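name: query_chain
kind: protein
chains: 1
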Amino acid sequence: MGRVVVVGSLNVDLVTRVERLPKPGETVVGSGLERWAGGKGANQAVAAATAGAEVIMVGCVGSDEAGAAYVARLSALGIDAAAVRRHDDSPTGHALITVDEMGENSIVVVAGANAAVGLDDLALLDSVGPGDIVLLQLEVPMAVVAAAARRGATRGARVILNLAPYAVLPADIVAIADPLVVNEHEALILADSESVPASLVVTFGAAGAAWDGDQMTGPVLEGSEVLDTTGAGDAFCGTLSAALAAGKGRREALEAALAAGADAVRHLGAQPNPML
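structure:
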């Protein structure tokens, strides 16, 4: 079984609940304020570990209480967090999240220490090889994402790139991704570019997902089961990576990922038991 090495973000999510998401210029009243573990990178790492993979997390947190609590949380979940660097000049990254009564969310990300992840933090990737997965997203500097993809691919690892939040990457980086994971909106933007990934997974929310056009539906949920959509895509990506690291084929990996995405909307927060 290969390892899943996640290079990505670690955020503290500050979450409040609203009757409905505010329109531009509108103020609404939030109910409560909770502090949860988030960040696309760490969310995907936790999902991969939950799915049974050996997981290594690469990233940065601030030299603050939130950063120390986050590293301790990852370690307690069985994730190797030795490559998560404490950065003295920036706070741990944060995300400001509002969730409405239907479980839909609106998110503002403050990068903090995530913006300090640098090329020197990628030294651990020298140890990856065939069978390993390098899992990437776009909440750390683009130069780091590109370097991680190239280094992983050069050493024979499989590179999975979640193109979110959407940004334009060099065509050779997109071409490395096997698969590149996008939602249906991001897929439309990608289609207008000249970049072609090694393979492409498109997620359609409740309608399932497709890998190079081979579509599969996931579990059907009642509306009352959907508590919070935050992190569903991350659960999908982390679980997909874990399944592929375990040697499973496309359809079996996709089925596991869809089930994990469905499970993710049944609990509050991007991660299970996410309180920090």
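note: The longest helix spans residues 250-264.
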